[in-house]
Amino acid sequence: MLHHIELWVPDLDRAVASWGWLLGSLGWEPYQEWAAGRSWRLGETYVVVERSPALRPGAGHDRMRPGLNHLAFRSRGREAVDALAEEAAAHGWRPLFPERYPYAGGPGHYAVYLEDADGFEVEVVAG
Asked: Residue 34: its pLDDT value, please?
């Protein structure tokens, strides 16, 4: 089982707003809070967003370069995916592949693909 995921972000407030909404919509609960970060937990696994003091200056995250491409989460079903797709823009997410929604991952794979303002991609799959 996955223990945790830690995402270093350039703007903590923006990340808390977008990731907090997304994770809360998927049933994750606020877990930890400190000056430079926040976390949300589901079961024994947690996700951290942090504006680390060790963050190097630079161009930021690029999901198209070597490294993390995206995180995929399971939702409660198609209605939950549709609700996320509809509400995402109001919470700092933009749709990816909207012309192929909800089957951008292929026939029978009901999901929404979203990207936040910092370039992190999530896929939310109907559970």
From this structure: 97
